[in-house]
Design brief:
The structure is a homodimer of 380-residue chains. Chain A is an alpha/beta fold. Chain A is 45% helix and 18% strand.
């Protein structure tokens, strides 16, 4: 259980299967984000239909509302959100550092105020394990400190040390809870930090591996404002350090071009709110025209699907003209239809990458794909 | 075509079939409202699944955005909104009088400002026929003047006279357009006005019937703030005046209890935005507990469906605890799930009324149903 079987590789890119108590996940795989226990606007049957096998939910949000204890009493997150497939919960660390108000960071944990009602809360490595145990996801993430993008070396180093110390406490509490709270089998992924400092990244990864044999690794602290080239360098060096047969989850990364670049550098799992957030603003990805916003007047009488090559429900049932009308009229249905398309776009990109790695054409296909996608974006 | 076949009656209540170019509508029938060419949040397959056979769209909204000419060029409203069943468009009169800004009412028509951008527009009986011809609905409504609820007799009388004069012009333009603009067969329903003044109601209906043999009648100017008993009296008197074999569409009426009261008084077709508007606020109808708001704390751990007796997608897949979480968290999915339930609730009420009229138990069933529903409401 929780093993990645690598079926084929091409360079650093890998195609594999990740086994969980709720089924196998073919990798590379994009995981739709169900922040509050719902992939915004969609029923979970639709999420399954668009090919997603594993979804993410946010510990911070579910802890605040409706509360992890309530979710546990109601049968756990799978039952609560009607999803039989694997679920990953994040640690809440990222939200505490980015979304919550006024906070104190101690060695013991983080004190924060709810973004909903200003109430005071504390997350510690132990409490975050307890919350995620109660939620009952398949994969739970260690509590980490994610310093802001562009931080200096000393800040990154201190955050690394704290994240490592917290990881030990997470592991200890996680192991205790396996005997205390009865939920289906879970596993714990640590979160690698170190910003763009290559030696810190290398040292952090090594110290995690010295601590134990983890069933997978979260790669955090990227896509937080740093230069893209720096992100690729970090992924390349981690590819040389991390064990091959463990899934690597690149946290919060999921624009189409970034996903392909990261797959090329050995990443397996991805999540990002961009598909649903972009949907809210009328923005979609297409394979022939790059990223476009459907509010543009040129779509007014456009009777083509959003992406003629796409097999999603939206593209096989609706045209741009109608969807543009929904977007311009701020109709809720547009959010749903565009989310389905954008999510399917990323899920399909993972599927296609997997197929290409299998037959050894990933590098060539990915290069052409990225070139076209970027040219198109620059034309918009 | 456009004939109502009455299969059975019980008192004034009738069960029938209304034939349209896009299929038959079993009556009594609630018609979901697709204001802007979309039943808020739903795909039309879901609307069909919940048993709705005929839907309504708003001329005022579609005229302003995306424009009737555009809808026409895109193949008409059926193609535009992906609905193969019958569609009824209203005349826009009600929206002009209730939603648009600064207006002048002349004998020729109404000048108004768009609620979207303040732009100046004019609706005349002729232009409203042209717009509805371009949209291409099965049933189009005559342009009427709907004076505010509680207006005095002179105001109601003047509005009646204008509505009658406009009806003649609507009919003439409607007949011309049948040769000018090629769309599937349409029919024109006049809109009966007269507020709560019984002699005006009677006179208005008689003058319409003197003008021709209409294939159906819209009953307007009710549910605009008047006393409920006055509304029932108007329906009773119209039942004695209007031809039996013509469908009667009670405009804008559709709360569950009002629907049953109106069925008992010979009405066949209904529409109302309450199912979707209530959904937006977390309010649902149940057969055992009346109208409830799911935000209430007592639903926090309630694992029952919204309505245990309901066969809708929401009630067969989700529980109150999860949906309450969605409502409290302002998640878009709640609007969708609650709309499905509320719409199904009204559609089912029509189906059940039809069955009961067929076997002669409508009056007894309806009395019990209303008593329970009203008692429950008073307990909330």
């Amino acid at each position: 259980m929780f093993r990645l079987t690598v079926h084929s590789t091409e360079g650093a890119a890998r195609a594999g299967s990740f086994t969980t108590p709720h089924g196998e996940v073919a990798t590379p795989a994009f995981m739709p984000v169900g922040t509050q226990g719902t992939v915004k606007g969609l029923i979970m049957e639709e999420v399954a239909e668009l090919g997603a096998r594993m979804v993410l939910a946010n510990t911070y949000h579910l802890y605040l509302r409706p509360g992890h204890d309530l979710v546990h009493r109601l049968g756990g997150l799978h039952a609560f959100m009607r999803w039989d497939g694997p679920i990953l919960t994040d640690s809440g660390g990222y939200q505490v550092f980015s979304l919550a108000h006024i906070r104190e960071v101690h060695d013991d944990g983080v004190v924060f105020q709810s973004h909903i009602d200003g109430s005071r809360h504390e997350f510690t490595p132990e409490s975050v394990m307890e919350i995620q145990r109660a939620l009952g996801a398949d994969v739970v993430m260690a509590f980490d400190e994610c310093p802001p993008g562009g931080c200096d070396r000393a800040t990154a180093e201190a955050a690394n040390a704290r994240t490592l110390a917290w990881l030990r406490r997470c592991r200890d509490r996680f192991e205790e809870l396996e005997h205390e709270v009865n939920v289906p089998l879970q596993t714990l992924f640590p979160v690698l930090q170190g910003n763009v400092f290559e030696d810190l990244r290398r040292g952090h990864a090594q110290s995690f591996m010295d601590l134990g044999d983890w069933s997978g690794y979260g790669i955090g602290g990227l896509s937080v404002g740093e230069d893209k080239q720096a992100m690729w360098r970090v992924l390349e060096l981690l590819d040389g350090v991390l064990p091959a047969e463990r899934p690597r989850y690149l946290m919060g990364v999921g624009y189409p071009d970034d996903l392909l670049e990261a797959v090329a550098r050995g990443c397996d799992l991805f999540d990002c709110v961009a598909p649903t957030r972009n949907a809210r603003h009328g923005t979609v990805w297409t394979s022939e025209e790059g990223q476009v916003n459907l509010k543009a007047a040129r779509f007014r009488e456009d009777t083509r699907p959003i992406d003629p090559g796409c097999d999603c429900y939206t593209c096989t049932h609706y045209d741009r003209a109608y969807i543009r009308h929904l977007v311009v009229s701020a109709e809720g249905l547009s959010m749903r239809l565009l989310s389905i398309h954008n999510l399917r776009f990323l899920v399909r990109l993972g599927e296609e990458a997997r197929r290409r790695i299998g037959d050894g054409t990933f590098a060539a296909w990915s290069r052409d794909w990225l070139e076209r996608y970027r040219n198109e974006r620059s034309l918009v």
